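About this split. The held-out portion is used to measure sequence recovery: a designer receives only the structure tokens and must propose an amino acid at every position. Recovery is the fraction of positions where the proposal matches the reference. Here is one held-out target exactly as it appears in the evaluation file.
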């Protein structure tokens, strides 16, 4: 157990020579494009409205606590 790597990155392996891993930014972009292609523009409108409603609720809740 003393030789086992612990903490962040434990168990990670390096990519094969000539290949590199995907950055977080690249992974997010790839995921966003996939969602866009699968669900379309209306999906983003719907989740945007839900997010806006939630923000309004939280603001009102914060005002009532003061």
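Reference sequence for scoring:
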């Amino acid at each position: 157990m003393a030789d086992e790597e612990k903490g962040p990155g434990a168990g990670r392996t390096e990519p094969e020579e000539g290949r590199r891993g995907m950055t977080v930014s690249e992974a997010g972009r790839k995921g966003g494009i996939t969602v866009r292609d699968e669900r379309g523009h209306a999906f983003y409108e719907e989740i945007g409205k839900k997010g806006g409603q939630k923000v309004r609720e939280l603001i009102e809740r914060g005002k009532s606590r003061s």
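Annotator remark: The first helix runs from residue 24 to 39.
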